[in-house]
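So, who can interpret the following?
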Amino acid sequence: MKFGPPPKDAQHLEALGRNAASYFGEKFKNATSLHGTQWATFPDGAIVYFLRKTYWDERLGILYRVIVIDDLGRHERHLNAIAQYKFDAPPIRNLATYGTPSGVMPMAPKIFLYTNQLYSSIEEVRKVFALFQPDSFVEVVDESELHKTLFISYGGPDEAMAAKINNAIKSKGVVTWFFPEDSVPGDKLHRMMSEAVYKYDRTLLICSKESVLRDGVLNEIERMLEREASEGGSEIIIPVALDDYIFNEWRPERADIKQQVTSRVVSNINNDNFDSEIEKILSALRC
């Protein structure tokens, strides 16, 4: 197996790499980072792409290793590739300023693996790494577990915006339930939607005249409010307004429904503020 710099085919890792940079930037606040993309070529020509990052903390005198790869454990070949990758020798740093002798900065024995989703057990990942790097310990950071899960509730006419929001949130590692992607043919619609409301941690409620007048959406709102009450006042609903209808003209038969939806902080999302509002929603979903 050979390792080298990547061609353009590795661009699909860019978003995951940015997410990893944000995560480890918080984790290693006093560290300086170096990063780059790698690709492993197998004898039969197959290629595996991943990012490698190093963070060195001069105050502690130690270097941390990070590998970023998508769908960890889904393909045995991918796991074998990163398990065989050896980081370059750590840099020689002048650490006397922080009371640490000058010389080669030691690597922490732990290797962090950052992925959008883990498809095998952590034990299996560690077992493979132990074959090639027995002195290392592996810690997996699974993006899908860094956020609460999310059910997307909307009316059919708003599907385009709902899909745009769903795609943006999923790209950050959030596990979502979105009808066009996750519904199962043959299941009873009412039961399927009710189960999704209770299964997922939060519900993103698309609020527009096109959505909140629909019986299906109103039914989902009622189920969400019932769940909040049964859980002692938990906060399940994240309202996202596409227009001003819920604030001005909305008159549902149950007057308390409007009050319970509009008494929360409502995201007023549009194409101009889309990215900033998505970040706010992600903040609400962080564990």
Summary: The radius of gyration is 23 Å. Residues 150-285 form a domain with the Rossmann fold fold (CATH 3.40.50.10140). Residues 227 and 233 are 9 Å apart (CA to CA).
